[in-house]
Design brief:
binds zinc ion, 395 residues, mainly alpha, two-stranded antiparallel ribbon, single chain
């Protein structure tokens, strides 16, 4: 009987070629750096702490450095270089470029280019860290077995960055800039407090490992667990419990839906220190043009998701369709009244106290009307689900 794939599966020569090609794809610099920082840090500290204890400076420095670098990756590499969600003063840009090197996550150019591919081709083979290839791949596997050919088109989706001589300077020298920051600074402090080995373990190895794996978590866990309040078009999710370590990047469903917004957590109580830092920098005139998604678009996305979740046979589905338009109209009127009021308040033209009060009253009325429609919407959605639950549709 003829072999359907003659000589292919087990041919020693082809097997050898396959192994060589697989080995070529392994990133021989990335593998030891990622392994040494994570396992070296953990094992080293497990051996070091019982004998030498912990100096308070070591964990404090480690946590502070993790936080600063996370803010720079989030605000600089991500929201500024990859998404251009705002414009910034040259001093801030330089800060982002220099401190960003300490993340040891490639140059801003490569990072932003990969990330733009991620958004454009999310969940497909062209997505560098596609969540569809599994948790391991999206977390770290893509870095270990990255195809260098994929980098050939690097500048194609980042022409704006390729034209920026500061970005290209950092792209050329980022490894050299990272050494004094990521290794030299912690070691210097280690010598000053008389514990260079302690600071090497805490401030260099563990700090780099935490910085790496928190960023990787956005690509892995935030594409696997959590909720999809704005869109289910891709795997991205909002994961509230990752907030403490991700500086706002955990609101990933919102971000994939409205990627040029400078905020990821849009509610006042959403833990998004990056957005607060950018807002503060804007007040100090160090950044400008913070981009915000109009409220009615956010509302529209949420209503669409509500409608998708209420199954078609729900008795109140038609009512929801009618309510959606009423609610969107009320939201638009509220937004206009708000804009008018604040423009009027800031205007230098002569305005009477009565006209200002009238604008304020109009704003209050529009807000109340919007909130009433919103409550009605929420109650109707609740009723829809309750109705289905009592009829056995949803348990
Ligand atoms: Zn994503
Ligand atoms: Zn993004």
């Amino acid at each position: 009987m003829e072999n359907p794939q003659p000589g292919y599966a087990m041919h020693p020569h082809l097997l050898g070629v396959f192994v060589i090609e697989a080995l070529k794809k392994i990133q021989w610099l990335t593998v030891p750096v990622l392994s040494l920082t994570l396992f070296g840090g953990l094992v080293g500290l497990a051996l070091y702490i019982p004998r030498h204890g912990v100096h308070p400076v070591e964990p404090i420095f480690c946590a502070a450095f993790v936080f600063v670098v996370a803010m720079v990756v989030s605000g600089g590499y991500h929201r500024y270089f990859a998404h251009k969600a705002f414009q910034c003063h040259p001093a801030v840009k330089l800060f982002y470029l220099i401190v960003g090197c300490a993340a040891l996550q490639q140059s801003a150019l490569v990072w932003a280019s990969d990330h733009r591919c991620h958004h454009r081709y999310v969940d497909t083979d062209k997505d560098p860290y596609s969540a569809k290839k599994g948790l391991w791949w999206s977390h770290v596997g893509w870095l270990l077995a990255e195809d260098p050919a994929s980098r050939q088109n690097l500048l194609r989706n980042a022409p704006d960055l390729a034209r920026d001589r500061w970005v290209m300077w950092q792209h050329k020298y980022w490894v050299w800039i990272s050494l004094p920051l990521a290794i030299g600074l912690p070691l210097l402090i280690g010598f000053l407090i008389g514990r260079p080995m302690g600071m090497f373990l805490w401030g260099v190895l563990l700090r780099i490992a935490i910085t790496h794996h928190t960023t990787f978590t956005i690509n892995s866990l935030a594409h696997r667990f959590g909720t999809q309040p704005y869109s289910d078009a891709c795997t991205a999710r909002d994961v509230w419990w990752l907030a403490p370590i991700l500086c706002g990047e955990n609101y990933h469903n919102y971000h994939h839906c409205f990627q040029s917004d400078y905020r990821n957590g849009i509610r006042w109580y959403h833990w998004d220190p990056t957005k607060w830092a950018l807002w503060t920098l804007a007040k100090l005139r160090l950044v400008k043009g913070l981009r915000r998604t109009p409220q009615h678009l956010i509302l529209k996305a949420r209503l669409e998701m509500d409608l998708k979740r209420v199954p078609a046979p729900a008795p109140v589905y038609d009512r929801l369709l009618a309510l959606r338009q009423t609610l969107l109209d009320a939201a638009e009127l509220y937004a206009k009244a708000r804009k008018n009021y604040y423009e009027f308040k800031r205007s230098t033209a002569d305005r009477s106290r009565e006209s200002l009060l009238a604008a304020k009253e109009n704003l209050r009325a529009r807000r109340e009307a919007f909130e009433a429609r919103l409550s009605e919407w929420r109650e109707t959605v609740r009723l829809a689900f309750r109705g289905l639950a009592s009829s056995g549709g949803i348990s």
